[in-house]
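ugh ok so i messed up the first submission bc i forgot one of the chains. this is the corrected input, ALL of the components this time, i swear. 915 residues overall. if the numbers dont match what u have on ur side tell me asap before i send this to the collaborators (the ones from the other lab, u know who)
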Amino acid sequence: MARIIKYVFYDLLRTRFLLFYTLFLFVSTFALFQLDSDPNKVILSLMNIVLMVMPLISVVFATIHFYNSYEFIELMLAQPINRKVVFLSEYAGVALSLTSGFLIGVGVPILFYGAGHSAVMLLLVGTLLTIVFVSLAFLSSVLTRDKAKAIGIALLFWFYFSLIYDGLLLWIIYSFSDYPLEKVTLALVSLNPVDLGRIMMLLTLDVSALMGYTGAFYREFFGSYIGLLFSVGVLMLWIVIPTVLSVSIFSRKDL
Amino acid sequence: MISLNKVNKQFGKLRALQEVSLAIALGKSYALLGPNGSGKTTLIKSILGLVVPTSGDILFEGKSILNQCAYRAKIGYMPQIGHFPQNMKIGQLIDMMKNIRGEVNEIDDDLIRDFKLYSMYDKPMHALSGGTRQKVSAALAFMFKAPVLILDEPTAGLDPLSVEILKEKIIAERGIGKVLLITSHILSDLDDLAGDVIYIQDGKVQYNDSIHNLKEDTQEKRLGKAIASWLGQQEFLSNITK
Amino acid sequence: MRSQFYILLFLICPNVLSLEAKVIEVGPQKRILSIKEALLLAKPHDTILVHSGHYKEGNIRITQALTIIGKDYPILDGLNQVEIMTVLANDVTIKGFVFQNTGVSSMEDLAAIKANNAKRLLVTENRFIDSFFGIYFSHCKNSRIIANNLKASAKEEHRIGNGIHMWQSDSILVSKNEISGHRDGIYFEFVTHSVIEYNKSYKNLRYGLHFMFSHNDEYRYNHFSQNGAGVAVMYTQGVKMFNNVFEENWGDSAYGLLLKDIRDSEVVNNQFLKNSIAIYMEGSSRISFRKNTFRENGYGIRLQASCDENDFVQNNFQLNTFDMATNGNLVLNTINSNFWDRYEGYDLNKDGIGDVAYRPVSLYSMVVERVPGAMLLWRSFLVFLIDKAEKALPVVTPENLKDDRPSMKPYDFTQQSK
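and heres the new structure output, hopefully the right one now
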């Protein structure tokens, strides 16, 4: 597997996209730190990148990469190599390279300017979300043979989790504002990795006091050790479930 | 060596393979024939595990190949159209294949040498002509001295000289007792290369016997003519039965 | 200025008088062992000097003008039963004692020092440990409370009184005290013409400063931090709030400064840092907010629709979650020349003033105002889009609630405040 990952890596580096991606993150993070002396505000700006831009880039890049690697995958599958190994190598290669791009691009400037509690949470959430969206991208790639269709599905995932879902959530909160919704919304938030990541970040930035009673409930829950374990666990499920699903589809897929 | 047992494959509404039962025996070489879209490539891909049959069994040396991969170490495969990572160079590709099939100590580089690929080691795949890509594809298929060779349209796109080099190589391999499964639409090529013929149409095996028998049955000397004549007989027979 | 002059005058007077008076010494090694005994011997304007020791004398009543001074902090212990000292005379000075363990009662307001109907009192340099009420004045005039330290450690609001509690008084100076762990740090009700300055009031269960019906007072250079609900100023007119710091009053119902029914007042040069709501105001009019810094608050200003004719001029708004929020559509307040760190406009003529107006109320803050639970979606892409759309085409946010002359750069108030 390591041998194949090596070639996936090699292939990814050849495209230079990753280099640009890392550089883009690096330069923007540095610029944000330069422009703003307040590290909290920088973290807030970075949070927008982590929650909106990075999932989009991850999901689109991973889908495109999967189709660009079709030849490689085909070639590998004619060799005495397990399908799962080929698929997971591709997956690991993309996930690892995007994650390291993020950790280098954002993590190094943060370390340079000094990392706080919220910065650590930012790196954790960013890493997990990147991998979640790579998983979703691979799922959309194995769902169809058509590259354009797959990118469409991938974009839909992003659009759904970034926007549509929140719209529905807002509608629910608005319509049922007379009822105690804490546990319901907690469950609903867990069904959207972007929301979950966002709330994990928000609570380190302590906006919870503005959420009224809901905020107090959330603060108590996510502030605890169990809450952190829960949220990381749920994000892990968001990584594992699409991956298991796509592996099982891929191992029955005709090439 | 390889046996197919009532293999069916359905792509949506299209039945690409229907109840295909075949036995590929050790030491024999087969010409896989049939019109376009008859299921030749699907059959080959099924054997390689690239296409998973809807129903039926494929056994390789007596074991089902479903979800297996190790058996592919014994197959050298040359696809109809070679797809290769575009931004790799020929040399890198060959090195990578060696690396990935790490269990092989000695490689067969006859074709690499004869096709003069060594001198093109630094050319990236995307800059290659279709013919050169076929050469690389052929070289890779023979490189690991696999006992089974599956060649899908091996001569397509090659210049006459290269075709001759490849044919010689195939004949040589046949000579040392390898199993060969070759498709080609140029039937004259197959005359020298195959001993048996499998004819499929609409996903069904229509004919499976030695070329020698086919020629005897049809009183034709050349494979192409023999096939055409056999097809004529079939049509005639079916009209009568109607 | 007038009140300050009086204060100066009273600072000198008792000292002059005490020169002629005699000194009675009290202490475990002295002839007079108890303060009560000394009080019986004392004539008006005498000084009682109490030496270090642990005095458990129940309630001590002071009925004539006296200067009572503790040497090396003698302890007056109420044994959790009584009010320690009750002052019923003018011109009393109490200095240098430790008051501890007053009684706790739900029927009467037991205090470490309670003064009633007195003038020209001075309570200074005392320490109060676990008092129910610390210093409690009612119907007093021209009195001073300076440099005391009040510390309590109650956990429940109903088991504890206020630190410095002033009721129906006039011309009081509360200065340089440090109060923590009480219900309200400083409590003013019906107290007029008074000054509260240089105090530190922190970690009190309810308000750092609780201020009602106290007209024409001034409080300045105070530091209020980590109080349960911040500072409340209510039902008052003519309050001056200068150079105070309101910090880290963070919680579901915590305010940096709560203004309720305030009129004709000034809020100048204060700093509001890290409060969940820096200023919450309702029913308030004609207040001038100038040169304040709002930084890292949840809300900068939460303006209820019942407020009008207030001016917000030359303030800094930085790193607040919401700069301003309101529950109304018609807003009759003036917002001008503030610095908003969220401002994205431009300044073509380089005069330091943005050419486009800034709207400090975001649409989403109006949604949250109606449904607090919607805060759950804060900083999501959806909210970002909603606010962007509203900025481009204001439909819901109040049309006239905007700053037409936003400053391009933050103001530097540091020189003025020091």
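quick check: Residues 3 and 17 of chain C are 22 Å apart (CA to CA). that seems consistent at least. The interface with chain A takes residues 250-252, 254, 276, 296, 298-299, 319, 321-322, 341, 367-368, 370-385 of chain C (CB under 8 Å).
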